[in-house]
Design brief:
The structure is a single chain. The protein has 9 helices and 24 strands. The protein is α+β, with helices and mostly antiparallel strands. β3 and β4 form a beta hairpin. The protein has 3 domains: 125 residues, Alpha-Beta Complex (Adenine-n6-DNA-methyltransferase TaqI, Chain A, domain 2), CATH 3.90.220.20; 100 residues, no CATH class; 152 residues, DNA methylase specificity domains (Adenine-n6-DNA-methyltransferase TaqI, Chain A, domain 2), CATH 3.90.220. It is elongated.
Length: 408
């Protein structure tokens, strides 16, 4: 019940402190996370703070909240929890997560979190027992998501190793009885990529045609934010489109898309591919920053593995150019020379790899559903509208360790 919650200010919940300077040239490879405003940037040989801590962006990227449960080095672009004020660390994390901290921007140019205003905000703080129960509910979802992420990583590693074993190291079935010439199987051939794929350019658009949420007569829209760094589909980047398009610019489950634009100079997106998921059995439209790759000979799953696990993306990204925004010419992509294995061999590979890719997609979809449920629960739990005070809740394993340590 909210009537047993205490009136207070943000500073009664947690005291935040600015992180520490660590220039890139001073980072020495180690085991301690270097925490930037939105992610772990690197690993250093020294740490500055002990766990657990909550970290959020102070300058640059605002709104992202991270829970770090190991010694680390929070950078000076972050604020970290110096003192939890005897509150539950996980509860503090979820409280910050639902605050939409980007709304407290005080910077005229570079986004900057207004810490002074934040510390004086009036809030309601539940008893510690309730805090732990609220955190336990939400942590259960995050733990499930983390387990699935680990399973996905294992499956992706299996797919990559299998591809490299067969098509990079040439240790495919019956390779011992295969004739090789200059280190390459004699029945494999070299060709330009345009012999085996066709490329369809995406749709140009106006800002009025793009929406963050589904609206009437809108279609899913694949854009640069639909790609993870270094490739793979990113569901949180999906947008909605209400403009005109051609049938050729539609993509659906299993289709391959490639990013041909990069807004940064690190080339982490351009030339990378993603595999379109189910999208609720609907189609999507591709933006002008992407292209659809249609295979003429091989299966889409094999071609996806080729672009993902060979050196192709690393090679082709170097052809992207531009002063501020990098652009990769589809014609340049099609001119690349590739080594073509026999179709029969790729079909054998496909029978093994397809269930693996399907499982990755299924786990990714489960994670999206778990995250959606968690985000729907989050404001109701943190506000007290959904009470857990009278519930008998068991702590998930990740909380049991911390609570046992606190009791000792």
């Amino acid at each position: 019940m909210t009537d047993i919650w205490q009136e207070g200010i943000f500073d009664n919940l947690v005291r935040l402190k600015r992180g520490y300077d660590l220039p890139n040239q001073n980072i020495v490879e180690g085991v301690y996370p270097v925490v930037a405003s939105s992610s772990i940037k690197a690993y250093h040989n020294q740490s500055k703070v002990k766990p657990p801590i909550v970290v959020t962006g102070r300058s640059g990227t605002l709104g992202k909240v991270q829970y770090i449960n190991e010694p680390c080095w929070p950078l000076n672009t972050t604020l970290y929890s110096k003192d939890f004020r005897s509150n539950c660390p996980q509860y503090v994390y979820y409280f910050l997560e639902q605050m939409n901290l980007e709304n407290y921007n005080a910077g005229a140019g570079v986004p900057t979190l207004n810490q002074n205003h934040l510390q004086k905000l009036k809030i309601k703080i539940p008893p510690l027992t309730v805090q732990k129960k609220l955190a336990a509910v939400l942590t259960t979802y995050d733990d499930l998501i983390d387990v699935n992420k680990k399973r996905i990583a294992i499956l992706e590693n299996i797919a990559e190793e299998l591809y490299k074993e067969w098509f990079v190291r040439f240790r495919f079935p019956n390779w011992q009885n295969t004739e090789f010439k200059k280190g390459v199987p004699s029945d494999w051939t070299f060709s330009e990529l345009n012999e085996i794929v066709e490329i369809i350019k995406g749709k140009s658009y106006t800002s009025e045609e793009i929406h963050d949420e589904k609206v009437e007569d809108s279609s899913y829209f694949i854009n640069l934010k639909s790609f993870h760094k270094y490739g793979g589909y990113r569901d949180s980047g999906l947008k909605y489109y209400t403009g005109r398009y051609s049938e050729a610019q539609k993509v659906s489950q299993g289709n391959i898309v490639m990013a041909v634009t990069d807004m940064t100079q690190d080339r982490a997106i351009v030339g990378r591919v993603a595999r379109i998921p189910t999208l609720n059995n609907e189609f999507a439209i591709i933006s002008l920053d992407t292209v659809k790759i249609i295979s003429k000979i091989y299966s889409e799953n094999f071609m996806y593995c080729y672009f993902s696990y060979s050196s192709f993306s690393e090679t082709v990204k170097e052809f992207a150019n531009g002063a501020n925004v990098l652009h990769l010419s589809p014609k340049q992509v099609l001119k690349q020379i590739v080594l073509l294995p026999p179709v029969e061999l790729t079909e054998s590979f496909d029978t093994i790899i397809s269930p693996i890719l399907d499982k990755v997609e299924a786990l990714t979809e489960i994670n999206a559903q778990l995250e959606l449920i968690k985000q729907q629960l989050l404001p109701r739990l943190i506000s007290g509208k959904l009470s857990v005070a009278e519930l008998d809740i068991h702590y998930p394993p990740s909380m049991q360790t911390i609570n046992e340590a606190e009791e000792k």
